[in-house]
Write a structure and sequence with these properties.
The chain is of the alpha+beta class. The protein contains 11 helices and 29 strands. β7 and β8 form a beta hairpin. α8 packs antiparallel against α9. InterPro entries: Bact_OuterMem_StrucFunc, DUF5723, OMP_bac, OmpA-like, OmpA-like_sf, Thrombospondin_3-like_rpt, TSP_type-3_rpt.
């Protein structure tokens, strides 16, 4: 019957293909998955935990639907009964999907800490059928031909595509600024189609009249396939490359938050910074990518469109091949070249939370971007996934828990052990649960070469292999070794100016000296280069007056504190050092010397006027010596006073001769006084001749008074 033809056609397509894009579920989140990272996000291979990763062979397969659910026990115990015991969930738009994703020989190389390259080969097969009326499938083999029935399929879409890829990925670090880290990546791939089959039904319905045995159908049906498949839908030569070709691209970005970025930067023996490329440095990572952008064009095949609007006898629908049934029972509306294949473009995003150095929580979303109604198009199933995992260099264990579009709850487990990886995103829920609607498995073998982790046992920031004391922390200036304290004075040798002698920190590790040997250490000695007394802070007091020499104006003569250590012999309040007459009291304004009074000045001149000279000469007569002695005595009483010795004559004779005689007699007196000990600078000799008479020169007595010598104070 007609339903048998449609069902068998769908089963024929199903028997030749596989679908879904959730490949290697749980494994792709592992930071040590290496070249596999290009599948989900090409940016991930930058700053990889692997120097080199060579994938030898890996395969991931998935099948899922929302129509039929199996008990896995039935599948393994008695496969023939599995379908009989299966539960069905018919709706007006059931779907089925299946895929195989084979990652062939591929290699990833980390060029440096900023950029990585990958070359990969990949074979993929996709199968999707959507919007199938589940009632049609549910009634297969169960219609009673003696009763009328009516099925409204509506629109139905399906496609199977098989292709191979060879691609190249470049990824690099875009931003590395303290705790913020960003990287991007791009994969470009050449795609070779190896065959496809697709269907599209519009407003399809089937009505059976048991009274007339007539089947009435309506709608329009499109069927296309490449020359890879024969007219019966069987696979032919998959390597004649008649499936067309094209180019595809994957784009990705990854942001990492690295709050503890500084702890992953170490030093070599020269103090150069080295980043620990063997460690995951993020606390939180967010990634986003677009995959499978592109199409396969120039498909060498035929697309036929059939008119289903027809009523005919049910016996016309014998046969099990969809294309034969369409050709033999319906009118061909058009025939054209096969449509291009739209790749299953998808958006992926995930957040990875580093709980500690080995445990992680990952939140992932896979969202299809291709509409299921487009002709000859495959699409992934939407999925939201939560994956806790443990990962170290040689071991990774993960257990993804997800909600899959149409298939519901999935729980799986996986393992990476060195070069071997295997797992499933649904194995636990399939074994433990009932009514399993989806199952996936993956396994593979690779050769990983991991980045070396920078080890620093003593946590001094210098890597072990360049640390001369790897078990004891020390500064880079000392090549990772602690500074010594040779003299045990708790001051490190690097800061100790005397590393072999015990000394205090305030003297930079050196013992205090006693330069002047006075028993007072230099640190306490106010006069470290002069021997002194402890009570005077090491300073000397030569005169013993209680005032140290440096503060004593008279360090060799004892004096009082109020006189700054100087004596005041005459008690006139002017200390001897400033007193020009230290043994005679005198006022300060006269520099400590007594002041010459008017009476003394008169007495001095009375003496001077009695000095007698030989007539007409400057020679002092002997009888005047006693007078000179009296004059000297007065001058000595006023040692800082200065005087003029003035000579005068009468007017007898010429004024010129009188001038010379007065000068000679003044100098004669001055010389006599100097010879007797009066300081010469105190005396100035002046001759006035006959210019300053004190009496009349007309009388003998007057002339006698005018012939005189005066000694006057210079004020």
């Amino acid at each position: 019957m007609y339903s048998r033809i449609i069902l068998m056609g769908l089963l024929l397509i199903l028997s030749t293909g596989i679908s879904h894009a959730q490949s290697y579920v749980g494994f792709l989140e592992d930071n040590y998955s290496g070249v596999h990272k290009v599948i989900s996000n090409p940016a991930e291979i930058a700053d990889s935990r692997l120097k080199l990763d060579v994938n030898l062979f890996g395969v991931s397969s998935f099948v899922g639907n929302d129509y039929i659910a199996f008990n896995l026990d039935d599948v393994f115990s008695n496969f023939s009964d599995a379908f009989d015991n299966a539960a069905t969930f018919p709706t007006e738009n059931n779907f089925i999907a299946w895929n195989i994703d084979v990652l062939g020989p591929s290699v990833m190389l980390s060029i440096d800490e900023k950029q990585s390259l990958a070359i990969f080969t990949r074979a993929r097969a996709f199968f999707n059928v959507s919007d199938v009326n589940g009632e049609l499938l549910d009634k297969e083999g169960g219609f009673d031909e003696t009763e009328d029935f009516s099925l409204n399929e509506g629109d139905v879409f399906g496609a199977f595509n098989l292709w191979g890829e060879i691609g190249a990925t470049y990824a690099r670090v875009l931003l590395n600024k303290e705790q913020h880290f960003l990287k991007g990546g791009l994969s470009l791939k050449y795609i070779q189609g190896m065959g496809n089959v697709y269907i599209r039904g519009s407003a399809v319905s089937v009505n059976y009249n048991s009274g007339t045995d007539q089947v009435s159908t309506t709608g329009e049906f499109t069927y296309g396939n490449t020359d890879t498949f024969d007219d019966a839908g069987n696979g032919g030569d998959f390597f004649d490359f008649s499936g067309g070709s094209g180019f595809g691209a994957d784009l990705g970005l990854v942001y990492e938050w690295r709050p503890n970025h500084a702890q992953y930067t170490k030093l070599d023996a020269e103090g150069n910074q080295i980043v620990d490329r063997g460690a995951n440095k993020y606390k939180l990572k967010w990634s986003a990518s677009l995959t499978d952008i592109g199409e396969i064009s120039d498909v060498n095949g035929v697309q036929r469109v059939y008119d289903l609007n027809k009523t005919q006898d049910k016996d016309n629908f014998d046969g099990d091949v969809l294309e034969d049934g369409l050709d033999e029972n319906f009118d061909l509306l058009s025939e054209s070249k096969s449509a291009s294949v739209t790749l299953p473009t998808a958006f992926h995003t995930n957040v990875d939370w580093n709980l500690n150095s080995k445990f992680y929580l990952n939140f992932n979303a896979d969202l299809p971007l291709t509409p299921k109604q487009r002709t000859n198009t495959n699409r992934i199933l939407g999925q939201f996934r939560f994956t806790p995992r443990f990962e170290s260099t040689w071991l990774g264990v993960f257990s993804p828990v997800s909600i899959l579009e149409g298939a519901g709850f999935q729980w799986g487990a996986g393992l990476r052990l060195g070069p071997v990886y295997l797992g499933s995103g649904s194995i636990i829920s399939a074994i433990a649960g009932k009514n399993t609607k989806a199952v996936d498995l993956f396994a593979g073998l690779k050769i990983p070469v991991y980045q070396n982790k920078l080890k620093d046992r003593d946590n001094d920031g210098i890597i072990n292999q360049e640390d001369q004391c790897p078990d004891t922390p020390g500064p880079i200036e000392n090549k990772g070794c602690p500074w010594k304290d040779s003299d045990g004075d708790e001051i490190l040798d690097k800061d100790d100016n005397c590393p072999a002698e015990v000394g205090p920190a305030e003297n930079n590790g050196c013992p205090w000296k006693d330069t002047d040997g006075d028993g007072v250490l230099d640190k306490d000695d106010a006069c470290p280069t002069e021997a002194g007394l402890a009570e005077h802070n090491g300073c000397p007091d030569t005169d013993g007056d209680g005032i140290i020499d440096s503060e004593d104006r008279c360090p060799k003569n004892p004096g009082s504190i109020e006189n700054k250590g100087c004596p005041d012999t005459d008690g006139d309040t002017l200390v001897d050092i400033d007193d020009e007459c230290p043994e005679m009291a005198g006022p300060v304004e006269n520099k400590g010397c007594p002041v010459l009074t008017v009476e003394v000045q008169k007495q001095l001149n009375d003496y001077a006027k009695t000095i007698l000279f030989d007539t007409g000469k400057a020679t002092i007569k002997p009888e005047s010596v006693s007078t000179m002695v009296d004059i000297i005595q007065i001058l000595n009483e006023y040692p800082n006073a200065k005087f003029t010795v003035e000579g005068h004559t009468d007017s007898v004779g010429s004024s010129e001769s009188n001038q010379k005689l007065s000068e000679a007699r003044a100098n004669s007196v001055r010389d006599f006084l100097i010879n007797e000990g009066i300081v010469g600078t105190r005396l100035t000799a002046i001759g006035y001749g006959e210019e300053k008479p004190i009496a009349s020169n007309t009388t003998k007595i007057g002339r006698q008074q005018n012939r005189r010598v005066e000694i006057n104070l210079i004020k």
